[in-house]
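note to self — DONT lose this again. spent like an hour looking for the file last time. sequence + predicted structure for the chain T wanted, 226 res
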Amino acid sequence: MYRVEDKYNCSGQELYLLQRRLEGVLKADSNENNPDGYSIVSLYFDDLEDNCLHDTVDGVNVRDKYRIRIYNNSLDAIRLEVKSKRDNRIWKKSGMITRQQMDSLMRGECIEASSSYDDPAALFNLAIRTRGLRPRVIVAYERKAYIFEPGNTRITLDRNVRASSRVWDFGQADISYDFLDTYDKVLEVKYDEFIPDFLLQLLELGNLQQTSYSKYQLCRERYLSP
């Protein structure tokens, strides 16, 4: 099922104001391990021709991203994800993998998978075999997330978006990151068919501009020659 995903570039002050509004109304995400939220570190993959990056830059209507994600710098739970996007609607196929499977994928080796295209491992295997899928960049940030069950609404406030080209260090606690010069803070609003009016009112700051913001694109471009 595709979900709506709207993104807005924000300043630090705007994120602070939004957090103060939301924290008294909505409950926090279950991944949260302290009052400031939790950290996300993702290893993004692309093919030999960087089609995932080019599709994002060109605004291709239907496109995919391939990633491995961990939370709070822990390898206890490693999530494999393929995120499909159609305009501002997303469909994410997700599953858990082991450390050994993660290492195999990073080396460009296929792992055990079902035959279903809802299985992200099957999609990774196909992209490895046919397109030479390989790790390209690490993306990290801190997230404060709120959920509202009606409409399956999820609102996230992301800060300190940063990148590392040292993809083989993924999962290590002492990765050296490069911070983005701009656009390192973003509000994301995700929901199924509708978002309640009172949430739209809470999110209204008067000057937020919707954007096609892509953390993967910005972090990849951090290392591309001008």
